[in-house]
Amino acid sequence: MTMRAPVTDLPIVFEDVSFRAREVAVVADVALALAPGAPTVVVGPNGAGKTTLIRLAMGLMRPSSGRITWGGRDDVPATRRAILFQRPVMLRRSAAGNLAYALAAAGCPRAQRTARVAELIDLVGLTGLGERPARRLSGGEQQRLALARALARDPDVLFLDEPTASLDPAATKAIEDLIRAIASRGIKVVMSTHDLGQARRLAGEMVLMHRGRIVERADADAFFTAPRTAEAAKFIGGELLL
């Protein structure tokens, strides 16, 4: 009997992908492969195309031209991918109720949900807060709950769009610690951030976008210590990319 390798959505491959809105190229001619491994962090000035790139990789948007494949396949349902937005919406339920809903949507058998809810609550550091209304949690706690909801899908890859942009330093550290723990479990993390310090702390791979294009992609150490392009050198140095 032959053993089949488990199906995975990785790598996610962009082949000359562009996305246009009202004839403006928000993402232009992107060739990129997102493979298993350490987190990929996407940086760039506002309007560079970071969020659009992440939404395309998640499958929430279709490219205007080019092709995206997930694990070598086209049009794959996003059952093994999850995304966390900057300001997630909390359901009018308890924290545990939010997770139970996410587990049901992900197809988790009813008999396993209570134990899985407790596991996810512990994982994201919300022990003891399961019965609290989700909308009464602090901003940082809501973001951790949103991370737990994303993990309820048991994803191969987790997309994070500016996950700490509105959080204070303590809440930001808690989310960063969680991201490291998630990556250590073998889940591919792809995140955008405006914070270069955060990128230094978390990235294994860096992708710099400018005007919808990828202008540099490199191992994080090489990106920060020996940038190859003028755009990367300026961005790291705090200069504006115009």
Describe the structure.
34% of the residues lie in helices and 24% in strands. Strand 8 and strand 9 form a beta hairpin. The radius of gyration is 18 Å and the shape is globular. With 242 residues, the protein is α/β, with parallel strands linked by helices. Helix 2 (95-105) packs across helix 3 (110-123) and helix 4 packs parallel to helix 5. The protein has a domain at 12-90 and 155-236: P-loop containing nucleotide triphosphate hydrolases (Rossmann fold), CATH 3.40.50.
Summarize it:
This protein is 34% helix and 24% strand. It has 242 residues and is of the alpha/beta class.
H and E string? EEEHEEHHHEHEHEEHH
Low-confidence stretches: 1-5
Looking at CATH, the homologous superfamily of the domain at 12-90 and 155-236 is P-loop containing nucleotide triphosphate hydrolases
The helical percent reads 25-40%
Q: What is the typical, i.e. mean, pLDDT?
A: 94
- Summarize the main sheet: 6 strands, mixed
What percent of residues are in strands? 15-25%
In CATH, the topology of the domain at 12-90 and 155-236 is named Rossmann fold
- Any idea what the radius of gyration is? 18 Å
CATH class of the domain at 12-90 and 155-236: Alpha Beta
Task: Please state the structural category.
Answer: alpha/beta
Euclidean distance between termini CA atoms: 59 Å
CATH-defined architecture of the domain at 12-90 and 155-236: 3-Layer(aba) Sandwich
Strand order of the largest sheet: 5-6-7-3-8-9
Number of helices: 8
- Total number of β-strand segments? 9
